[in-house]
Protein 1
Amino acid sequence: MTSLRARWEAYWFRPAPLLDLAICRVSVSAFLLVMTVAPWLVLTIPPWTRHAEFAALPDSMYDPILLLRVLTAPFGEEFRPSLLHLRIAHGVAIAAAASSLVGFFTRTSLAALFVSFSFVVGHSHSYGEFHHIETMPAILVLLLACAPSGAVLSLDARRRPASGRLPLGATDAHARWPRLVMTWVLAMAYLSAALSKMLGSGVEWLNGTTLQRYLMVNALYWDRPLGVWFAERFALVKALGWFTIAFEVTFLLVLFRPRLGPLFALVGTAFHLGIWFTMKAPFFAYLPCYAVLVPWSRWLLRRTA
Amino acid sequence: MTPDVPGEGARTEAAPRSSRRAASCVIVAVLGLQFVTAFKLLCPPRQLESLARFRVLCSPALWPFTDYQMYGAAYAPPVEVTIHDPVGVLADGREVALTADALGMRSDEWRRLFVDAIRRWRAERVAAGVRRYEERSGEEVVRLRLIERRFELGEGGTIEAAAPRVEREVDVPDAGAGGGR
């Protein structure tokens, strides 16, 4: 039992650089600031621009997700957010993203960002339609709010008296687990995507025609000439189908070989940018979360040492 | 994820047991929720009727924890793709392509608000789309034609599966027209 606990502690709570955690915070906060201020830059059908549309839908269509029920529980079971509530939550999300970015009352800001972001996105997912775009940054913000993500590289750190300030290379027992948990979450998400294809359709999914159809239909709908170009090259599309499954299945290798993290971050970035340019599916929100895969402090501090 | 940081090696005070316990709860909760939703443990497929009673929490019920069932269906060759091209007939008999660019719309908006409106005959939307074209081009459209083109996708790339056909041909509705023709 003791040994199990020791292994648990060694795995999750081994001291790790606070700078790595702080860069994850900067990365996801900056992205969410862009997403909330200029959503059309990173989303195709952003909920952030459709508050009035959702608020105008009839009550009979409103079926709130669990998190929204929890957040609105103090206002009674029948409570349904109005346009004003959604606009206020949107404003809070912008302010919280900005203050998380600069690290001002960092953990409170991150918690406020998680709540307001979940309120708005969760509301948009309470009418029978949902997208996977915003899940990853929401989970990362939640994890960062529970950890010392503002201990360095933040206004909070600067506000401390000089004697109490931590150097950039400082480590902490709570600096490792949020990044590790996020890596697990990403790995499970990609494995889930691969399994849904393989269990639902089997190897037929890799026949080339499947991806060819997805590419062509989306490329025509969203006017993506590059998608049409790819869809017309069968051998290339077939190879891309195999690559997709290989990427999604092998992503979990980063859990056992952390040195592969930057490589998977690079390949994943290319993967999602490729999907954007060919099918206009905006999975940009995954990219700031790849910050958890990169050993920033090892790279940056070695350079400045 | 490596703790070996070159340079400054300062460490904050050791984390107290209570904070590690709290963090452990967060770790277990997040990973547990992600595991249950990602692998659909509480949302077995509808086809498995014997497991219907376990179908209690399907995405997005536990958002932000969800499954990632995307683009999962497979398609056997040949796959057919149908495209609809709206064409406007001008008063002098010339034909013009009423593309997204010509109407100044985004491609998805154009398909949803204009092409689909012609197919399902939402006269007001059709009239609004034509008016956009007329304002931008200074040309008057008197008649609309929706051309359907079918393609087959396969190893040889994209092949036209059938000759283009006119799916719908109508006079341009009045601006205040109602739906349902």
Protein 2
Amino acid sequence: MKRVVNLYRTSIGKKIIMAISGFVFVAFVIVHMLGNLKIFYPAHEGVYKIDVYGEFLRTVGYPVFARGQVLWIFRITLIGLALFHIWSAIVTWLMSRSARPIKYKVVEPVASTLASRTMRIGGVVIAVFIIFHMLNLTTGDIFPGGQFEHGAVHDNMLANFSVWWVTAFYVIAMLFLGLHLYHGVWSAFQTLGVSNPKYNSWRRGLAWFVAILVTAGNIAIPLAILMGKVH
Amino acid sequence: MKLDSKVPGGPIEEKWDRHRFDMKLVSPANKRKFEIIVVGTGLAGASAAATLAELGYHVKNFCFQDSPRRAHSISAQGGINAAKNYPNDGDSIYRLFYDTVKGGDFRSREANVYRLAQVSNNIIDQCVAQGVPFAREYGGMLANRSFGGAQVSRTFYARGQTGQQLLLGAYGALNRQIAAGKIEMHTRTEMIDLVVINGKARGIVVRDLITGKLERHVGHAVVLATGGYSPVFYLSTNAMNCNVNAAYRAYKRGAAFANPCFTQIHPTCIPVHGDRQSKLTLMSESLRNDGRIWVPKKVGETREPNDIPEEERDYYLERKYPSFGNLAPRDVSSRAALEVCREGRGVNGGNAVYLDFRDAIQRLGKETIKARYGNLFDMYQRITDENPYEVPMRIYPAPHYTMGGLWVDYNLMSTIPGLHVLGEANFSDHGANRLGASALMQGLADGYFVIPYTIGHYLASTSLEDVDTSHPAFAEAEASAVDRLKKLLAVGGTRSSDEFHKKLGRIMWDYVGLSRSKEGLEKALKLIPELREEFWEDVRVPGGLNEFNQALEKANRVADFLEFAELMAYDALDRDESCGAHLRVEHQSDEGEAVRNDEEYSYVAAWEFKGVGVKPELHKEPLEFEYVKLATRSYK
Amino acid sequence: MDLKLKIWRQKGPEDKGGFVTYEVKDVHPDQSFLEMLDDLNVRLIHEGEDPIAFDHDCREGICGMCSLVLNGRPHGPWDETTTCQLHMRAYKDGDTITIEPFRAKAFPVVKDLVVDRSAMDRVLQAGGYISVATGNPQDANTIPVSKDDAERAMDASACIGCGACIASCPNASAMLFVAAKVSHLALLPQGQPERMIRVDKMVAQMDAEGFGACTNHTECEAVCPKGISIDFIAMLNREITRSKLSGVS
């Protein structure tokens, strides 16, 4: 453990933590997106697949774990990783900010991308989004679409995304997530030292794929609901 | 002044070994009591500073660049020679020695050259151990290529960046000692004067280029590794800041300057274009391995090179020197280029010849040529806007390396006891012409393998008084330096020192350049003092003394070149023979080859300073050739 | 051609500094960029003004002394070219060129366009070498090095230490510079004994010098005059991870 802490103390170590936590988030957002796509499943005998899926998530691990325990373990782990991810980002950002006290008058980006340049602002947007999203659809504390009902995933989502600005916020946040994923996935490979001229072009390709997959899948849900395509 | 070369006795193969045993040693406990000043961080300076510190001496090292890694050794492209005989093509220490003495046209000291050839192999071992990424064969062994003036492949190389890679090795060794606290490194610090106390070199006065303040540094011995003086020609292949100051100040303090007129004009440089150029770019001699040099047979040829048919091309090096061909030594190649251009057969009647890769590309394919010379081709294209894969390169000789330098004995000590001189700054190993890939060898030989022994001998056998920087000699040196710098600032004329430098360069190129004549040299001796006078009346140096002032640095260097140029002309005038790079038009064969006069000029000309504008006094160190018999050099 | 130059002028480290505009006329396309500045300096000396301070030395793209950020790009618009090798053909009549020094906290301005890059030396002093004293090492050919390894080590070792990577990096990170030296030595058999401790010390010094943290913008690779690949940054990341996890420090 001391060795890991020593690694974390270096600027590179902080990025390695960001990369590893980032990969966990990538796995999470893909699974999360795939699960939520069940909203498109039509009701079968008055039961929505997504409600079943929600119920599954709450009861997984039973009887070793009580209802909801595993889900909360997951949530807490993810939140913990997110805090680590964010903390590392803030520390390295402060390093970089102080590393150039006088800015250039003219800046001509040669190789950096919109995605690489929006990592920090995108990260902030995503953090704000995650807080909103949890208050919105996990706890229901902020729920402009009417009355939040625990467990009724389908009804909650429909009510929620019928509010145009909620949908708009989700879509914008997902676009930022897409950019963040595109640079993040590629960058995480690089930071973890997964590099070889033979398959380096493949890293970019994978980053594109993940970014488009997650963004498109996640945007499809609120947009379809707002447009009344989901019943 | 007495010139004692201190060459040890015995057969040449045993001289260095015997001498190493005969020299006195400094015990490990005493080494740390000695402080050694090393000026310069090129191959010679960095390797000397690092090695002396490893031995336990306390070293102060100085460079005017912002980092020791930037010294001009870094620009060497082609390679470094060693007598390893890895290719099994008949090389040996003796052959490297023989080639170097012959290549230098019998104007170098045999014993020094033999030692150079002896330690050449250690250099390669040392550099490989440091991690220098030399080129390799597929089996993992070191690769070699051939270079001018040799019929064996003995040149080790690291792409087109051999100098850089070797310097990074020495710089690494230097860094290790800096980190260990054994070397006190002073960057952006320029030596302004040498301090001689009781006849011995005991310190230097430097200027901190950032604050402009003068500082005094005392030591038990001083080592100058300050490079050559080619920028006396203004346009040269040297870096812009290369200068003669340190060596010239030592000369003014009593060190003899040897063979200043031996300046190498490198045959493969990009020709001058226009009058607003600041420097000439060298294209590595290694290009001559595959490129063929030619000019049109016809005077007044106007066709594009690719339109000139084979039978109308004159591959003059191949024609005149069939056994060496395009790999004839530098002085021979440069002179041949000059000759064909004088005949009016240069490119478009001007000063350039073709270096053509057409045949090599046909034979080996573009990819192979690209792998060998890609970076050089790219550089050529950036500068000239022409594609050398399709159009032959245009090249012309340019001032490159200076074989002359401060006179040193076998121990690399100058005529001032305690003042040691290494690398290009001394005169010792290359005679009247240096062979390709030998400069790196000499710099590292001096720094890694010679000075560490000989300086110990000096320190152990000399009684050195306790002095510190409060000694009046330091005050005198500092005061005279301040005086001179203030004088430069006070002239307040109308022209920049650059303009004077350009003018000086023109004089030197015209009269003390590739070919020299009595009339021309006498004219130069009239023009140089005139220009110097003009300089001191009309130069304008803005800014002040105690600040970062590049204009002042430059003016101070030009001021010394304006005095030093005269010394070169005196030497060239005295040497009434042709040898190596020094061609007196009065002494050439019908075919334009240099004709030596061994009867009268088989000596090292060592000049003693007698005052500015006063003819210096000539001292002669006779040269004897016991092993390589004096013969007319032939590369036919 | 005629050009307008907006040049950063700063009397010294304490001065605030600012841009001064100069018009230069009759610039020749075959001149190098620094020759164009030389001409401007001669003119300024004639006019009794302080010439513009800028670092330069070899003028053939190898010493790493020249710097300058031209219109937002270190070493100007040509790929794999230092400022001294940039020729005025790159510009056209009437262009405006903004000339700034390399900017980073670790590169304090000395004067005008001259900066102090000694931080890079200190990183290399921390461990960028193989600890071998001058002496009689084994014959050079007793350490075979595969051609591929030698070539890759040479790719890394081609770094000229100019600092353009740091100047171009939006984070002012020195990763490419450090990666090049770490990789050069880690790729060679001679570099193995100190492999772990070397990267450890160099990264610690890099962080201590106040460089920023890499976020993989890859600007460094794009502006590097020697075309050094960011693959070496990946290698550095691997090296430091291995070193730390093996408990070297």
